[in-house]
Amino acid sequence: MADGTNVDTMQTAATAATEMPESDGDVDMAEVLKPGVLPEMALGKADAPVKIVEYMSMTCPHCAHFHNTTFDTIKQKYVDSGKVQFIIREFPFDPRAAAAFMLARCNSSNPEQLSTPEQYFPMVSMLFKQQQVWAAADDGRAALLQMSKLAGFTEDSFTKCLTNQKLLDEVNATRERGSKDFGVNATPTFLINGKRYSGDMPVDTLSKLIDSLL
Description:
Pfam families: Thioredoxin_4 (PF13462). Belongs to the thioredoxin family. DsbA subfamily. This is Disulfide bond formation protein D. It is a single chain. The protein has one domain: Glutaredoxin. Helix content is 53%, strand content 16%. The chain contains eleven helices and eight strands. It has a six-stranded mixed sheet, sandwiched between helices. A two-stranded antiparallel ribbon has the order 5-6. It is globular.
């Protein structure tokens, strides 16, 4: 009994020790959720009570850490259960990040068509898991080509995707909208039910925030 009590006490203390993240300010979620120039990359029910919009850069180490350590747990716990809709929006800080986003946006078998969320999210996940391989490589194109071939691209479809000026313009426009309209100036930035939060969040912190909104 004593051991059980100690475990319960420890769990309660651990929960209490998880602090709510501090908001950077308010955003109008009705405006945030209006469509942009690119189709929304969203997972989860459209009528989920909690909306999370993440602005991120593919070369951002903190973004990679979030997706490699937190995202899958949040998806299983909240997105798959219908409590959260999770949306990714592009906020590239450099040309290599923009190129990675373009590859995630392209349909690998037909690069003139855009990918679906079912194609986009696994590509983003793969690129984040391998970020150290391609993001700082001396030959960025060769490194991204190698990564893209794992997702079904050929050298031809890879080149067609990355020379799509319209797509590049739309990726950059997505970033500009985030910066101008919603005050995004760092990655990752999360817009969650009317509040803006900057920086990586561990599972416990984001879970506590989501639970407070349910």
